[in-house]
Design goal:
This protein is an alpha/beta fold and about 240 residues long. Helix content is about 30%, strand content about 15%. It is globular. The C terminus is likely disordered.
């Protein structure tokens, strides 16, 4: 059976202040997509509202805008995928082996409150599928509860974009909340690398998380390991 991955992307194009654009950090999608493509996995894009996905301008100038991101932007078929993403009500969680939340600061606004994404995530997780996120993607897990009412991340080892990285990126005054602190408030056993912006992932059973844009490839590989039965334990 071919594995099927559900990528979650944002519909938001700016911070609270419209003068500051944001969106999907493209390489966080393309790095993972490439890893999953090499495995022969089928892949689908979903967003909280469905439809078009804005791109984070800073990501397109960043070193991580490598060959996979540039190839995506040069491929009309790939760009078209970002113009017509599915909405949560079009997704049957039973069709997917894993869900992967991409990042970019935009997701802080539309991921947490999406009941549709929470439903999909809960169903995949509770039947043993893999729930994963990279960078700010973990904002999509902050408010997700399991069937018993507990937070999915409560008691779980995980990572995501650190507050210290927000400060270094000079957006700590723009972001709507401190995601690292909010994860801890939900009971997460939050971990981060000793140095900012280096690749860092954490696997806790069927929850796989990566800290920042540079962690996307390693996060995807950890998802593959979890799906294929070779789950790496601890930090990577």
């Amino acid at each position: 059976m071919t594995r099927h991955i559900l990528h979650v992307v944002t519909n938001v194009g700016h911070y609270d202040d419209p003068a500051h654009p944001t969106g999907l950090w493209l390489s966080e999608l393309t790095h993972a997509w490439h890893v999953f493509e090499e495995q022969g996995y089928e892949q689908t894009l979903v967003s909280p509202a469905g439809g078009a996905v804005p791109l984070e301008p800073r990501a397109l100038k960043f070193p991580n805008d490598d060959k996979t991101a540039k190839a995506w932007r040069a491929d009309p078929a790939k760009l078209a995928l970002l113009e017509s993403t599915a909405s949560p009500d079009q997704i049957d969680p039973a069709d997917y082996d894993a869900i992967y939340f991409t990042g970019g600061h935009a997701v802080m606004y539309d991921f947490p409150g999406s009941e549709g994404l929470q439903r999909i995530t809960r169903e995949i997780y509770e039947r043993g599928g893999v729930v994963s996120s990279v960078c700010h993607g973990y904002c999509g897990l902050l408010d997700t509860r399991l069937s018993d009412g507990s937070y999915l991340i409560d008691g779980k080892r995980m990572t995501g974009f650190a507050w210290s990285e927000e400060v270094l990126a000079r957006v700590d005054k723009l972001v709507p909340y401190n995601a690292e602190e909010r994860a801890k408030q939900r009971g997460a056993r939050y971990q981060k690398a000793k140095l900012p912006f280096v690749s860092y992932t954490v696997t806790d059973e069927n929850l796989v998380t990566g800290q920042n844009p540079g962690s996307a490839k390693a996060t995807a590989r950890a998802v593959v390991a979890a799906l294929e039965g070779g789950t790496p334990r601890g930090r990577h």
